[in-house]
Amino acid sequence: QVRLVESGGGLVQTGDSLRLSCVASGRAFSEYAAGWFRQAPGKDREFVAASGFTGARPVYGDSVQGRFTISRDNSKNTQYLQMNSLKPEDTAVYYCASSRYGDAIPRILSDAGSYDYWGQGTQVTVSS
What we know:
With 128 residues, the chain is mainly beta. The protein has one helix spanning 106-109; strands spanning 3-7, 10-13, 18-25, 34-39, 46-51, 59-60, 68-73, 78-83, 92-99, 115-118, 122-127. The protein is built from one helix and eleven strands.
């Protein structure tokens, strides 16, 4: 059984930074693309960032481009999301996801339907 566990969320102020972590177990994390999505209350789930199994050529959502960085350490079955210059509109539950693909074009990596395993989510709240 595949399990994804996020951590690192919390309450911060505008302009602060946070780093989210996602530890995977149950299958070879290093063979699959992985990503981050978020969902704010009353809003649809939004793509944040993703990368293929090597971590090369990451893809970002428009709203986080230039502020967030996705990375992964396959030796630790872990992916990270470094979030800088946080804004109140970044407030959401952040979900880690593992794809059914090893790598794919950005349109596929940014599609939630490309992911078959999800974590339980971690809350990020940015106060103004």
